[in-house]
Amino acid sequence: MEIKRVLCSKKTVFIMAIFLIVTVWFFIKEQTGDSQYFNQLNEFRNEEMAKCQNLEPDKTVEYLKQQASYYDAMSDLAAMPTLIETKQYQQYAQQYEAVKDELNPEDIDRKKAIISEILTAAEHVSTYEESIANIKEKAVKMVQISIFAKKDSFAYKEIQKAVKDYKPLEGILVNMGNDKVITSVVDFQLIHYILFAFAIVIISQFLEDRKLGLWSMVHSEKKGRFVLALKRVAILFGGVVAITVLFYGVIFAISCKMYGVPSFSRMIQSIPEFGDFVIPLNIGGFIVVFILTKIFALFLTALIIWFIMSVIQSRNVALLVLALMFATEYGCFQFIAPQSNLNIFKYANIFYYINPSDMFTYYRNLRFIKLLIGRLELMYVGMIVLTIVFIVICIATNGRKRPVKTPGKIEKMLDRCIVTIQRPFELLPAWMVEFHKSFIWQKGILIIAVFVYMAFSGIKDIGYTYKQSDSYLKSFYSSYSGVVTQETIDYVNAIQADCDNAQSSYKEAQDQYSKGLISNSQLDKIKNINDTYASKRTQVLAMNKNITYVQNLNSKGYDAHIIDDTSYRELFGKTNYSVDNLISIKIIFLLVLLLSGIFAFEKKSNTVNFLRSLKKGRKSIFRMKMVVTIVVTVGLWALYYGIQLYQFYNNYGFAYLSAPLKSIKIMENVPLNCSIGAFLIILYMTRFVMLICVAWIVMMISSIVSMEISLIASFAVCLMPSVMIYVGIDLFKNLSVAMPINFIENFINAKGYAFLIPIILMLIFGIASFVVSYKKWCSYAEIKVAGKKFFMKREK
Amino acid sequence: MELKIENVTKQYGTVMALDDFSVTLNAGVYGFLGANGAGKSTLMNLITDNVKRDSGKILYDGKDILELGSDFRKILGYMPQQQGFYEQMSARGFLLYIASLKGIKRKTAKSETKRLLKVVNLSEHAHKKLGGFSGGMKQRLLLAATLLGDPKVLILDEPTAGLDPKERVNLRTFISELSKDKIIVFVTHVVSDVETIANEIIIVKEGRLMTMGTPFDLIDEVADKSGDEDMNLEKVYMYYFR
Q: Which of A5, A470, A605, B19 is found 20 to 30 A from A635 (Cα to Cα)?
């Protein structure tokens, strides 16, 4: 029964399902990145790997270096085609001719990254045997230096230990193969924290009898003490095994599907990341060791937390102790340097048990008093010893601890502190109590703190790369932005003429050289001068394109100016769609977490009828809750889009605000004729209104159902379709609330005013949700009769 | 001051919660007696407009309470059967919050809160979190919240639940003192709660008004019918619920 209650309850199964979905989603997202090109790039990787398989290691490295140079050259030529005429690039002339029309700088960069990755692996494989042999040779040389020669010194001991530890790796066969399938799983960090969170869920189920007031009853039963404690240890272990195997099994299967099944007999040391893993294991053996390590590390961490939560009667004190413990551990984990004499506190740390991946990739020895211990040894020995110790003390604590206890000094002191801190909040006016309910009682402030941190720490994800315009272009934009005039055309023509002159001079020189009128060195000199015009020619091309674009629009009756639209193409263009999607998903996620309890909390607290019987218990309370909703929405909107605009401003500034919107090339076909500045205002205000509508939808769901269902239903309705689009599943595109928020894509690509349809629908849905919420609280009532709920409309 | 319930009916599916119920209440204590599911709480929810009636009227001083709206809620004090609190609030904080929702000015609210906490013997626990209160303490606090603003109509649904005998006696005495200028509806299924303080007893069974009268009148009536000379209110109750 206990196993059923803890591991098979609806709550546990539901949470596990959500965690699994989140894990899978983030894993796929981490692997695929820009999903459009993932399959293509995977194929490219497999092709290059196949070519390398047939070559000797040295030849493989040579081949890959050639490929790297090739892609570097193509990247340069894509940016500046005129470089093909220079000496340095002429070796690639034939290859460039074949591909020049299809060259895509972003595609080349992606391929370059893949080549670099394979090259690293090839270099690792080709030099591995030598590097292992070098450890011994290096050790012999080092002990001849006086500071390392003292036999009782740590330096000497470390050198000897390193030789001993690496000895098993001598002579092992390393070869190239499918590294990605293993590294993608081991490098996936989020899974550690999700599994940790699930272990906390199991522990919270153990403590539920205390929360429900059943502890006394359970404790007085025949099998309610040690037997129950032993069962719970087994359940915890079983639960940890099950979720670890399940979660890792699923992501490993996904990884195999993406990258192919690895060769399990290949040595793990073949993968560069695991070159310093001193236990010679094949990939199959490594996977087993990794999973077992993860299971026992997680089990130990869970036991420690369970012990603290059990031994300390007061929940507040227990949480305080846990917080202090984690803060101290984190401090040691983060701030102690790896080489410090105190590094044992860095590595013998709970955070390394939560996330043990690092153990397999870095070789390090630790000093503890007069002992020198390897990290791996410390981890495994520590794990075994501590696991046994904590199993025993958890059983002893849970078996012996009595439900009724007089509060101790710490608990009394904590209670007094809480009472003192709380006093000022007693005087809060009713409208501020609503904020208190959302941000303090429902832990909203923690959620906000986490997401503000994420918003600022994720700045690089939504940053813009500043592209310095070339000098002539820069001068062109600064002096000739605006309408196209004869002066503009004359300026460009002058630069073009200059370029043409250089080209003519070179052609003439070539002609003279062929007739023997000038020497080779003289020709080279003129050629070099001509080469320097390559950049200028590219810039003139860009200027002419700009002028042609503006003139075309003018001829169609539209107003357009010459502007440097790089910045706005980044902000409004394709490259930013996924960023905008991510921002809206984060905001919607926060809105759901913060507002799903806005009405449902009153139901959970059983205060609905009582509040509604008060003079200001209906419209006034509704107004107060509306204020909270709007403040939360404004705050989130300002935070995330504020950061986006701040970054944009930092990189580019807000230039050309008065220029017509169609001056931006991607806006050529949009139905709106306004300035860029006006469009920015329309864009962000529309986003704000759409977010208010989302907030009202969440509010409506909260007013209808209970707290837990409100959260789930709000996620399902508001977040899931948007998340699916972000991952690349467009099935629920038209049901996604993120679509009207990120209407830019539709605005640019859809015909006419079709982009308004989702916006209008969202507005209607939002207003309807507002009305339903209002009626639910101010006019509707709820009553339970014989287990059924009825909703009745107020009589007018 | 008159609260008139006229021919009120309420049905949930096939269950008739109230069947053509009529009663007129003036200043004084009215004890509503009935078994579980008799319709007492439904009636209270109708009076507090937490439930829509199928038919009939509820009038206060001749005006329908639905038309009066917040004006009626201004003079209403409702103590629900289920204890609903914000566990994270302190007792004083909760009373001040309710006072602000009753439209009571801040200065008056502070003094009222202090007075009522003393009345219900919770002054010592004023700043403690409600999560740590026992059932009886919560009940007393709920009573204090109901009495804020000196309401004219008090609906007390099972107010003695969770109270020890001494507290029950105190509560009865307190309510009796209040009843001079208030309509107090005291809903209970414990006879001893109302037999000494109620001006009239109303017995409700299966949504219908079975009988209504002063305790003495009811005792005499049933004694005559049953021929039991040792009649008391408990036996009157048993008579109607046999």
A: A605
